[in-house]
Amino acid sequence: MKNTKEACTYCQGEGYFQLLLGGTESCPGCAGTGVQPSHEATAAIGSAAE
User: Fold this and answer.
1) What is the pLDDT of residues 11-35, one digit of tens each?
2) Which of 8, 14, 31, 49 matches a 20 to 30 Å C-alpha distance to 43?
3) What is the CA 13 to chain-centroid distance, rounded?
């Protein structure tokens, strides 16, 4: 079975990124999971923010 989950393009699958002044922050693109969110989940998040 093929793995259909792809690494998040914003954090390259790490789930976080380094801040310039030190420390880390969870990736806003994947909510820290490291996996590219599906289009359905992204649409649901976008509509809930409105």
Assistant:
1) 999 999 899 999 999 999 999 999 9
2) 14
3) 8
